[in-house]
Amino acid sequence: MNERELSLIKHMGEVFASHISDMNIQFNKALQAHMTLVGEKLASMGEELHVIAKATPTDFSGMVAEAISTLPEPIAPDLPDIEKMVLDAVSRIELPVAPVLPDIEKMVADAIGRIEVPVAPELPDIQKMVQEQVNVAVGALPEFHDGIDGKDALQLEVLPDINEEKSYPRGTYALFKGGLWRAYQKTVGLSGWECVVSGVHSIDVSQNAPREFSIKLCLSDGVMVDKTFSVPVLIYRGVFKHGEGYQPGDSVTWGGSLWHCDIDTSDKPGELGSKGWTLAVKRGRDGKDK
Fold first, then answer.
1. What is the rounded distance in angstroms from the CA atom of residue 139 to the CA atom of residue 123?
2. pLDDT per residue over 190-232, tens digit each?
3. What is the pLDDT of residue 198?
4. Most buried one in 52, 70, 87, 105, CB count within 10 A?
5. CA dist., res. 55 & res. 51, Å (int)
6. Where are the beta strands (DSSP E) in the chain?
7. Are strands 200-209 and 158-159 parallel, antiparallel or unpaired?
8. Given this model, what pLDDT does residue 223 score?
9. 17/3 Cα distance (integer angstroms)
10. Cβ neighbours, 10 Å, residue 105
11. What mean pLDDT value characterizes the chain?
């Protein structure tokens, strides 16, 4: 039931209660008058009985029974059928016709389809970054001079890998974990080796949030390089919520319209003085019944 039906039933209940209260008052008045009449007759009979008692005894019980039998019986008023009246009143109530609501899902899908997808920024050139780091590291190495027992740099032998189960003499060069290593003493396992040119050992790219990514580089010498960047892609966040922060690229529904977030903000879209929102799709007119 809606509020109108409940209000009508409440009003009918109050009217029925008023009628029943009036009938109750009338019934009590009639009963009181009847009791007064009975009291008067009994008092009169008592006086007569007192007089008769001094004279010849009579059949008092018979006289009382006869007097009571002559009294009219009070008639109870007919009460209305409350349940039938309520059902009849409810059956006469016209139910309101629900208005035709617009297809919000289709409107949002159409609005999102008309928004241009932002172009993802170019990722940094990892290979170029590594090469620059290698060039810096190589440039920081001390200059080599020809010595009596020395070798020309072009004559250095660089091993393709380090076998940790083997031992290498001092001055051995080898490639390991993407970098260039040199044995500064006779090695045992990895003891005695040092990284002279650090390269990239591994790259790990992970997604932290719908638009945030992290790149983790593990260099040859064990140094970790962690970089984070975000791409302002379009993400629909549903209906605007007070107190929640929004980032560039977010879109929300508010007041029947679709809004696009341009900067970090928690302001309400469309309010005077609010910042960070652009109206993407304006609310259409409400539908009408034919």
1. 27
2. 899 998 888 888 888 888 887 788 888 888 888 888 888 887 7
3. 86
4. 52
5. 7
6. 158-159, 173-176, 179-188, 191-197, 200-209, 212-219, 224-230, 235-239, 250-254, 257-261, 277-281
7. unpaired
8. 85
9. 21
10. 8
11. 81
Is it the case that residue 73 has pLDDT exceeding 90? no
d(CA 138, CA 197): 7
Cα–Cα distance for residue pair 240/251, rounded to 1 Å: 9
Where residue 188 falls (left for φ over 0; alpha for ψ -120 to 50; beta otherwise) is beta
What confidence tens digit (pLDDT) does each residue in 140-176 have? 777 766 655 555 555 678 888 988 899 999 989 998 8
Handedness of CA 159, 160, 164, 166 (dihedral sign): negative
Taking the domain 104-118+232-281, which CATH number applies? 2.10.10
32, 227, 266 from 37: Cα distances, Å: 9, 107, 84
In this structure, the chain runs to a length of 290
Task: State the sign of the Cα–Cα–Cα–Cα dihedral 265, 266, 272, 273.
Answer: negative
**What residue segments make up the domains of the chain, in order of their start?**
3-91, 104-118+232-281, 120-230
Please answer whether residues 254 and 271 qualify as being in contact, where contact means their C-beta atoms are separated by less than 8 angstroms. no
